[in-house]
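Subgroup meeting minutes
Present: P.N., E.W., G.H.
Scribe: E.W.

1. P.N. recapped why we're keeping a running log of single-chain structure predictions: easier to compare across weeks, and new members can see raw inputs and outputs side by side.
2. G.H. added today's entry (277 aa).
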Amino acid sequence: MSSLRALRTAASALKACRTVAPTSARTFAQRSAITAGPSVSRTWAAPVAARCFSLSARAFGQGESDVELAAKLKEEIQYEKEAAEQAGSGAPEFVKEFTADGVWKIEHQDGHDEVALVRQFGNENIRVVFSIGDLDTPQEVNEYDEEGNPIANDEDATSNPVFAIRCSITITKPDGGALSIDAVAEDGSFAVDNVSYYADAKLAGELSAEADWKRRGLYIGPQFDHLDVGVQESFEKYLDERDIGPALAGFIPEFAEWKEQKEYTKWLEQVHKFVSA
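Output recorded in log:
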C-alpha cells in the first residue's frame, strides 16, 4: 500500500514538471520579444537618417530657377562686353575732348549714379549736378509746323527717344550767398525751370534733412517762364557766359548714357556672382 502511494506521488510530480516547463519557455520567449522590441525601434530612429533628410532639404532650398537665371545673366554680360570692345577701351573720344578743354572737371564714383561738373569762373564756384537715373525716362521728339501744331508721324516712321536730364546748377561766391538753378538738359539746350537765391550758400547745395527743412519755408522765386522775356534772355546770356550752354547741354546726356552702360555691366556681374554662389 505504501509503495503504491509513493508511485502515485512520483507520477504527480513528473506531470507538474511537464506543465511548468512549456509555460516557462513561452514566458521567456515573450520577455525576450518585449526586450528586443525597443532595441529595434531605437536602431530604426538612428540620427544618421535624420541627418540625411536635413541635407536633402538644404539642397532643394537653392531654387530650381537659379541655374537658368545665372545663364541668362551671363549671356547679357557677354553681349555688353562685346559691345564695349567694339566701342573701344577706356574713355570715349568725346570725354577726352571735354576734359582736354580744361574748363570743367568731372567728379563721379563707380557704383554711384550722381555726376558733378565743377569749375571756377572769376570768384565764383560753379557746380552742375545730374543723375544717370534720368535715362530710364526717355521722351519722344515731336515735330511742329510753323503755327506750333504737332505734326503727326508717318506709320512707318520711328520715334527718336531723347533723354532729358535734370540738372541742379549752383553758383556761389566767397562773400556769401548763392544762386540755385533748376534746369533740364535736352536736345542740346538748357530749359530753366526756376532760379532761387539763398543768403546762406550752404542751403543751395546741402542735402541734409535740416537744410531741406530750412529751404521749405523760403521764397524760391517764380517759375522761369513767368519772368519778363527780357529777364529770361539776360539769364540765358548769364549762364552761357559761364559755359552753361548748348555744348554742355549736349555733353551731359551723352556722358550719362556712357556711364550708365558701365554701371549696368558691373551690376550684371555682381548679380550673376550672387545668384551663382
